[in-house]
Amino acid sequence: MAKNIHVKDRSVRVQIWDTAGQEAFRSITRSYYKSSTCAFIVYDITNKSSFKSVTSWLNECREMCYKDILICLVGNKTDLESKRVVTKEEGQKFADDNGLMFFETSAQDGSNIEDLFNKATEDLVVKFESGQIKLDTHSNGIKIGKYPNKEVEAALENKKKKGCC
Description:
CATH architecture: 3-Layer(aba) Sandwich
Shape: globular
Number of helices: 6
Low-confidence stretches: none
Number of strands: 6
CATH topology: Rossmann fold
Mean pLDDT: 80
Oligomer: single chain
Radius of gyration: 17 Å
């Protein structure tokens, strides 16, 4: 899936791959790691074992991803608050202890989904502008339009000249 997100004066096209954490997708998930600049590790706030799995997903992500990847911890199913077993404070503490961005969302009712994508995209644009993520040396799922930063524009043009695989 691809989504256009507007950040300041830019239109950012983000490619999103969802493997739903299923074992059946484990082999292809590894190929996505190498070209990702952001990862969402999602757990179910109504399922403690889902939250316990976050540690192994985080370790795998850090082992296989680009070193400056932005990782977001996402507690999902806030629409089921009455069934919550993982507190917001537990999620926030884990995120803080591991240097992750933290959000709670509901895929069911859409709450906080736009905020999650917008904030993650804004942070990635900052990383591109600062040179922390280099467009010419790292394949990623993000395309940025209207480049006021000449270095970013030059890097993108250079990448285009080399061709694509």
